[in-house]
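Reading a protein record of the kind used here takes only a little practice. Think of the row as the fold of the chain written in a discrete alphabet. With that in mind, consider the following protein and its fold in token form:
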Amino acid sequence: MATICAKAEKVITFNHPVVVYTAPVNFFQKNTTLEFVKVEFTDSATVVTVKSDTPEKLTFTNPIALVSESKQYYNIHGFEQTGLSYRLFFDPMPATTKYFDFMNHEYSKNYFGIHDASYEMNFPKLSSYDTSSEIITNIDDFFKPGIATLIVKESKENKYKNFHDVTWTDIGIDNIGPGIIYNMSMDSLRSDSNNVETYIYHLPVSYPHFSNYVPSCINDANYYLEQGKTTEVNFDKNGRASFSKTSPMANLSYMLTATRLSFFESAKTGDKALGYLAARFNLTKKEIHVLQRYFIDLNKLIDIIYLDDSVTENTFIKGNFVNKKFSDYTLLRKLRADDPAYLIMGGFRGRVLFSDGYDNIMTGLHANNKGELSLSWNDMADSVMEADKQIFHTQEPSLFLQLWMFDSGELSHAISIYRTNPNDKKKSQVFNDFMTVHRKVITNPCLRNLFEQKYEELMKSKNQQKIEELNIFGDK
């Protein structure tokens, strides 16, 4: 790579660059962090001096660029190395630049909000955004299974083109195990006169959520699919992804793709950094709402449910879930117990959290000193309903509780036990208790309908004996 020497005249510098947010390194990469030492703005180049924390030589094989306040890209075209320090030469940015982003493509670290220490950045904290109004108003439609369309347009000149192995992981409501969907359909590949190839996929979706950060999915773009809607992803010749403005969650999809923001990294960034990203990527109110629920509330949710030692409101000893009390979970009252936005970005992780949450709460409240929980279904129903009221201050079963109860594995197990001897009064009573509990808890019309469908499917699949009189929700 040729070295470009910066002119000495008219040099304006960031002498003490500050990085607002550092994106996480990819799991398969070595954890190399760059320290920004100095930024020089000259007539011929923008020179960024960085220092590596590893003696191994850094390689810049991916397209690196600086992105200005006006979101214009300034490409790299040379570098010099002295020991652990590197001088990176980019196209000249305006000398009036107040802040910029350091974008490194494909599995490498990105750095956002780089500015001089003397410059005060005035981006609001993410928690200061007002999302008090109802963002997701029709919860029934949210849980209605459907087909989403994914359109991928890619330049034939893309040097970083990956094989299109679209393995959409659909997280079902009725189970917590992620499954790779192979029964999707794909329209014929099309090419046009502008050297653009188009792929069109049709994928089943149980509820709207992001692609769960699967690296092999279309050039590592984090796309969002929703029942009955179309998402369009475009890749230019440099492998950079963009999203059609008509795509749902288009700005948030682009932000997640560009930043590779992870759940774990969010705990380190704080509200200020997330607020910068929300403003930088022009997130809509709904997108900010989803971002808040996931990166702020879901983080708290995990700490409280698992009673992590970061929670100071209780006397929890790590590894011990027993002998808890309701006051140990009072922080959960600050969360929206009926908001499915937790699932949109949580994907499989969010679904597992809903499933495991009450397991651990019930263990903490009702298990013996050995951590063993032995409750009948009726007692379990009374216990979780009481916990729901105490923790979330809700009279109706929370969405959190209903999703915990919605487990087709448990349903299948209950049916199997009953089928072994349907004339056994004890087993019959347990089975009926199981159904009664679910009738009391699963009150959301859509979830209730899905559960009934799953019940009918499992009963038919057993293909043994029929239960003529049973109606699991007691409706006549």
